[in-house]
Amino acid sequence: MQSIDKNTLMRIIAEDSFVKADVAEYQIIDFDCRIATQALESLKTI
Predict the structure, then answer these.
(1) Residues 34 and 23: beta-carbon distance below 8 Å
(2) Residue 27: pLDDT above 80?
(3) What does the alpha-carbon distance between residue 36 and residue 46 come to, in Å, rounded to a whole number?
(4) Integer CA distances (angstroms), 39 to 7, 22, 24, 35, in order
(5) Which of 18, 19, 29, 34 suits 11 as a labelling partner, its CA being 20 to 30 A distant?
(6) Taking the complete model, does pTM exceed 0.85, yes or no?
(7) What pLDDT is recorded for position 40?
(8) 46 contact partners, CB below 8 Å, separation of at least 6
(9) Spatial separation of the C-alpha atoms in residues 8 and 14, rounded to whole Å
(10) Percent of the chain, pLDDT > 70?
(11) Can you give the residue ranges of every domain in the chain?
């Protein structure tokens, strides 16, 4: 699965009604699941 561009994601989030009402915020955390521990191997197939 390929991720979307971070700027595109930020534009999508900006349209969220809770964000617009200033009652919620998102925190985006980038990570590379290809270097995950064995316990998280199943995440590679999502």
Answers:
(1) no
(2) yes
(3) 14
(4) 31, 37, 31, 11
(5) 34
(6) no
(7) 73
(8) 1
(9) 10
(10) 78
(11) 6-45
**What does the CA dihedral 37, 42, 44, 46 come to, rounded to 10 degrees?**
-150
Cα end-to-end span (Å), the chain: 7
* Residue in the block written with tokens 């925190």: 27
Single-letter residue type at 46: I
Q: How far apart are CA 12 and CA 27, in angstroms?
A: 13
The shares of helix, strand and coil residues in the chain, as percent rounded to the nearest 5, are 50, 0, 50
The pLDDT value given to residue 9: 93
User: Is the pLDDT higher at 9 or at 45?
Assistant: 9
CA distances from 14 to 4, 5, 8, 31, 37 (A): 15, 14, 10, 22, 33
